[in-house]
Structure formats: C-alpha cells, structure tokens
C-alpha cells in the first residue's frame, strides 16, 4: 500500500470529531426523549467525580501507522482491568459508575531533584497533547490499534529532573476498594505495579496518556492518566496512575510477582518467545476481518523494532523476556 | 409424556448451538467472536456432561423416566465437544493438523481437552442398541469412561482459568461431580435399568 492511498490524518481526525459530534447529539436527544435533563445528568456525574469522556484536542504525533484503528466500542468494551473484574466485559460494566477521577492526584517522586504532586489540570497543561495511533498487543494473543491522546513521558521526567542514581521507574495504579470491587480477588498483589528501565521510560514512544479517540480516557481504559508502552505487552501499560517513582533498582511488578516464569520484567512483544501456556507467534486483531480469517503474525517489538530494538542490543531476549 | 417431552428437550439441548450460530451470523458475539464461540461451546459441553452423570441422581429424586433421554443428552455433549474442537482447530490453526498436534504436545491445557474428547468418542460410537447387545456387560464397563472424560474436561476448564486464578467455575463443576459420585444409586451392586 502506498501512503497516498491512506486517508490523510487530518481528514481522518475530522471524520472522527464529526462522528463524536454526531453521537453526542444522538445521546443528548435520546436522553431528552427519556425525559431526563442531560445537563443535570452531566452535573450529577461531575459532582460524583466520575470519568465522563470530554473532548480533548490534540495535534497528530508519533510515527504514522497504516493499521485501521479498532472501533471505539471494542476499545472501550473489551478490557483487562482486574480491579473491576477479570472478565473482559467487567471494566465497561463496572468502572464508569464507580471510578471517581476528580479529585485526582499523581505523585511523582523518588530519586528526583524536584518531586511533584500533580492534579488533573496540572497534568493536562504539562505539555502539548498529541494524538498517537499505536498498536496494542495483549499478552493473551489479541491486538488492537488505539488512537491515544497524551504526551511523551519525558515531558514529565524533565519537570521532576531525575537524579543520576535513578535507574528504573515504578508505576503504581489506584487501589481503592470502595471503587474497585476486583480488589477482593487474589489474582494479583494490589496495588497494581509496573516498571520500566530508565531508557525505556525516556524513549520518545513511551506515552503518558490522558485520552483516547479525541476524548479524555474512559474509566475502563484507565482514567484519568495511564502509561502506554506500545512495544511491550499491554499489561506493562499501567492504568489509573497515582504514583510514579524513580528508583535505583528494578521494581517488583504485579504480574511478575504472580507468575515469574510467565511474565518477565521486560515483556517486550516477541513472537519468538512463547508464553509458558501458549505461542506468541500470531495474534487476533479485534474487530477486523471475518470469523474465519487466519490470525496475523505478531511482529518483533510489536512492529516498533526500528525504534526500540537498540535499547536491548546485546541482551538475550529469551532470558530477559 | 415421553412423546411430548422429547422434542422439547431436543430444542433445549440444541438451543445454545443455534443461539451461537445466529449471534455469529448477525455479529452479536462481541469484540472477540472466536473466543465467545469457543467458550460457549466448551461451557455447554461441560454442562451436558455433568447432566449425563447427574441424571440417575435426578431420576431418583425427581422424575424416574428421564433416564430414557440419557443417550440423547450424552450425544449432544459429544456434539458440542466436537464442534468445540473444530472451532479451536479452525480459529487457532486454520485446520492445519500438524499445528494442532504440536499444540497438543506442548500445552497441557490442549492435551487434556483432546484427551477428554478422545475418551468420549468410543462412548458416542457405541451409544446404539446394536453395540449394547454386542458388547453385553462390557458396554457398562466401557461407558465408565465418562468419569475420566468428565475429570479431564473439568481439568481442561481449570487450566484455562488458571491464568486469572479464577477457579469459581471449575470448582462449581467439581462440586457437582462430587455430589453425584457420592450419591450414586446402587454403588455396590450391579445396576438395573
């Protein structure tokens, strides 16, 4: 496919905002029809601090991608967010009415010169927002293409000024049992924790995401702020972050603690290294193709090898999976 | 009662198959239709296998005459198990036999599922009156394979769920099996009827 055949990104973005406008009109008229005041409903949601996706403008950024974005319904209806239940329909069913994102604080500290506590406005104003269309490959063998809105994590790193002794970054998700019924399950150790090596965190592809499809993040996708690391399996991209800590040794991560032989610290997408219980050579792209289409081959580093392979030069990726 | 009940039971047994088929046709199986089909077929297999072994128990406490439908329920269980395997083979391996075999050799989850189906196959093949006459007392012996087949089926389900440490479903199935085993009628002597 030549790039001229692809819909120009600007047209594509307009199309999406048209769609968004169209759907909000539809929603508004539907709720009027139900004799509910949309204004009051929205005010109620606001006062309860729930994540109600609002328009979030951003300029296009990141490497261009020919893959077709996965439908909004699938991106927001098929999620792993165990804090709200382990079934992939649970997060959409449970999270929107439970997760309060306002007020929210993200603490950024550890081995940094200038530790920070940021609220949502601080986070949104920290750097220009970009739309980045990334592939997302779940360790379970399925994938999506998601138009995220956010900025490179480096923008935040520059603010806090990590010390030379900082070698890793630890990400901690919210763990509040009053909002998250899934915390009663013993699948993982809560709070959910993830980690990156310093050079991975500082890579320009690593995104701090505040939105999705031109709107603020939905609860089930990790509102109000999450990590996105497109060359690693999806579970590395921790959701609903409350703390980012710079540390001098490799942090313990939730999935690695649960099953160290199955989930390594690096967890780079790698078709050559099978999961203990299944192959990682192929994947099922959600919402695309027919029922009987074959699975598609998984690409090394999820197709971002050109950008990130050099980070792992000289490392045995079978040992450091 | 039999005459009117049989078609009703048939529809109830075949219902999930048609439901999945219609939902697949109208793209109502959610974001991952292959997964939804596989899980739906697997779950129905397990439910019917549990029903087959629970029928003597139910007959004793509820309606004795339901035992005449046991073969039909068993054959439907085998049908769902076969479609379940076929769907897995198509969706995961594009019907390439060597890929399926490689999977079976490297993944206990797959091996155990295939093992269960392999144990069910001779039961389905000998479910006719001719085989019953031909095999005589050995028929009953052969059909005790339902127990290991069901055990493998529950283990297969548990291995599938192990990634999420969510054993509610497999434990429920195992509990039903345990109740049925512990309350088997005429456990010591030979069964009649």
Tell me what the structure shows:
The complex is a heterodimer of chains A (321) and B (193). Chain A is an alpha+beta fold. Chain A has two domains: 1-47; 56-312, Sulfite Oxidase, Chain A, domain 2. Chain A is 22% helix and 20% strand. In chain A, the strands form two sheets. In chain A, strands 1, 4, 5, 8, 9, 10, 12 and 13 form an eight-stranded mixed β-sheet that branches. Chain A has a five-stranded mixed β-sheet with strand order 3-2-11-6-7. Chain A starts with 8 loop residues before the first helix and ends in a 13-residue tail after the last helix. Chain B has 193 residues and is mainly alpha-helical. Chain B has one domain. In chain B, 77% of the residues lie in helices and 0% in strands. Chain B is built from nine helices and no strands. Chain B has helices at residues 2-25, 33-61, 70-93, 97-106, 108-125, 129-135, 137-142, 146-161, 168-182. The longest helix of chain B is centred in the first third of the chain and has 29 residues, at 33-61. The radius of gyration of chain B is 18 Å and the shape is globular. Mean pLDDT of chain B is 91; it is low at 189-193. Chain A binds chain B through residues 73-74, 77-78, 82, 86, 88-89, 140, 142, 185-187, 258, 277-279, 284, 286-287, 291-292, 294-295, and chain B through 24, 30-35, 37, 90-92, 94, 103, 107, 109, 159, 163-166.
The structural class of chain A is: alpha+beta
**H and E string of chain A:** HHEHHEEHEEHEEHEEEEHEEH
- Would you identify the regions of chain B where 5 or more consecutive residues have pLDDT less than 50? 189-193
Cα separation of the termini of chain A: 33 Å
CATH superfamily of the largest domain in chain A: Oxidoreductase, molybdopterin-binding domain
Beta-strand residue fraction of chain B: under 5%
- When the domains of chain B are counted, the total is 1
As for the number of domains of chain A, it is 2
Radius of gyration of chain B (CA) equals 18 Å
- SSE order of chain B: HHHHHHHHH
Query: Can you count the beta strands of chain B?
Result: 0
**Mean of residue pLDDT values of chain B:** 91
């Amino acid at each position: 496919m030549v790039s001229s055949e692809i819909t120009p990104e600007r047209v594509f973005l307009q199309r999406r905002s048209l769609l968004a406008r169209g759907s909000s009109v539809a929603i508004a008229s539907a709720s009027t029809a139900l004799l509910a005041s949309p204004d009051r409903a929205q005010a109620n949601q606001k006062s309860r601090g729930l994540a109600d996706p609002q328009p979030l403008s951003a300029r296009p950024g990141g490497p261009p991608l020919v893959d077709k974005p996965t439908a909004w319904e699938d991106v927001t209806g098929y999620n792993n967010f165990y804090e709200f239940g382990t079934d992939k329909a649970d997060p959409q069913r449970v999270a929107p009415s439970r997760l309060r994102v306002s007020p929210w604080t993200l603490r950024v500290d550890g081995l940094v010169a200038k530790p920070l506590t940021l609220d949502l406005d601080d986070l949104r104003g920290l750097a220009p927002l970009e739309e980045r269309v990334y592939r997302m490959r779940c360790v379970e063998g399925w994938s999506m293409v998601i138009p995220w809105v956010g900025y490179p994590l480096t923008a935040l790193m520059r603010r806090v000024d990590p010390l030379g002794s900082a070698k890793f970054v630890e990400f901690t998700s919210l763990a509040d049992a009053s909002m998250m019924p899934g915390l009663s399950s013993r699948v993982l150790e809560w709070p959910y924790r993830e980690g990156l090596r310093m050079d991975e965190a500082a890579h320009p592809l690593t995104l701090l995401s505040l939105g999705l499809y031109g709107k603020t993040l939905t609860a089930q996708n990790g509102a109000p702020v999450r990590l996105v690391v497109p060359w690693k399996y999806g579970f590395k991209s921790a959701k609903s972050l409350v703390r980012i800590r710079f540390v001098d040794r490799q942090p313990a991560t939730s999935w690695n603690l649960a099953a160290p032989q199955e989930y390594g610290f690096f967890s780079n997408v790698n078709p050559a290294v099978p999961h203990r219980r299944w192959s990682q050579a192929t994947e099922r792209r959600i919402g695309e193709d027919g029922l009987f289409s074959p699975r598609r081959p998984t690409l090394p580093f999820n197709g971002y090898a050109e950008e990130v392979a050099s980070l792992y030069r000289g490392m045995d990726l079978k040992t450091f999976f | 009662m039999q005459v009117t009940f049989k078609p009703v039971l048939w529809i109830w047994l075949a219902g999930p198959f048609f439901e999945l088929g219609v939902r697949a046709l109208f793209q109502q199986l959610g974001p991952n239709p292959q997964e939804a089909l596989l899980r739906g077929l697997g779950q129905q297999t397990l439910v019917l296998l549990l029903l087959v072994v629970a029928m003597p128990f139910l007959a004793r406490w509820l309606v004795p005459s339901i035992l005449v439908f046991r073969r039909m329920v068993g054959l439907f269980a085998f049908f769902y198990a076969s479609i379940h395997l076929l769907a897995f083979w198509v969706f995961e391996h594009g019907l390439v036999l060597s890929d399926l075999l490689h999977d079976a050799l490297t993944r206990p989850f797959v091996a155990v599922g295939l093992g269960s189906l392999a144990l069910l196959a001779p039961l389905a093949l000998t479910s006719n009156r001719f085989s019953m006459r031909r095999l005589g007392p050995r028929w009953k012996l052969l059909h005790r394979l339902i127990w290991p087949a069901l055990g493998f089926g529950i283990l297969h389900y548990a291995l599938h769920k192990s990634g999420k440490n969510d054993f509610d479903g497999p434990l429920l199935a195992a509990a039903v099996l345990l109740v049925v085993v512990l309350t088997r009628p005429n456990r010591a002597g030979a069964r009649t009827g």
